[in-house]
Amino acid sequence: MASITLNKLNKHYGSLHHAVKDVDLTIADKEFVALVGPSGCGKSTTLRMIAGLEDISSGEIRIGDRVVNNLPPRDRDVAMVFQNYALYQHMSVYDNLAFGLRNKKVPESEIKAAIDRAAEMLGLHELLKRRPRQLSGGQQQRVALGRCIVRNPLVFLFDEPLSNLDAKLRAQMRIEIKRLHSQMPTTSVFVTHDQVEAMTLGDRVVIMRDGEVQQAGTPLSVYGQP
Ligand code: ADP
Ligand code: ADP
């Protein structure tokens, strides 16, 4: 069970800059929420606070029935996909996929099984021996997704993961991400400034403005008739 609950969540940068203001939001278990809004409205900061990559200033974050405010990222059962893929350039795709599990001292046989499964889901088998620089942008983003899948997270956090891809690939990856979400028992939060992405991916769209939640609802109720 991994609902996400934000209670009066605030983030100040310094004394003047109030980046996230009293955000109250409940995301249901297995829901796919698209978090949208203009640049600088606080989307990424909110996502990074859920991941534990950014300290909160005040409020509460719950994942499932646990308050995670003071937990480090590795104890939150979240996996985050970044815009720039964040792959290790000097390692093969296989070793990139294995890295986090090796750190946790997971046995190699289990690591191999997890990588086989992720490679199957993402069509990565023929790429496992390559280095990231020998991959296209779309392939690199699939590896980044694979690195999240092998962690078996309860929550997927996406920070504009498709922004560096061309339009055709973006459309393909949207379908792929939606399929992955439906195949795994995960709750997903997807930050984007792209309305098409928000409409096609989100069960619900949450619009932020100036650090606050301005509106939330189904894509149809937020954006009107298609
Ligand atoms: P978005 O993801 O919606 O574009 P962000 O969450 O990145 O917005 O940023 C929200 C606000 O907080 C912006 O005004 C941004 O400039 C500011 N901000 C983000 N990170 C920092 C930081 N490390 N230090 C100071 N201000 C920051
Ligand atoms: P570990 O297996 O010890 O978690 P990693 O090197 O994979 O080691 O990760 C280092 C830190 O970054 C850990 O706290 C981990 O939970 C976190 N981390 C790694 N990958 C991700 C990811 N995709 N999303 C969110 N956090 C991550």
UniProtKB/TrEMBL annotation:
Keywords: ATP-binding, Nucleotide-binding, Transport. One of its GO terms (molecular function) is ATP binding. The keyword Secreted does not apply. It is found in: Cell inner membrane. One of its GO terms (biological process) is carbohydrate transport. Coiled coil: none annotated. Signal peptide: none annotated. It is a peripheral membrane protein. One of its GO terms (cellular component) is ATP-binding cassette (ABC) transporter complex, substrate-binding subunit-containing. Residues 4-226 form the ABC transporter domain. Belongs to the ABC transporter superfamily. This is Glycerol-3-phosphate ABC transporter ATP-binding protein. It comes from Reyranella soli. The chain holds residues 1 to 226 of 368 of the full protein.
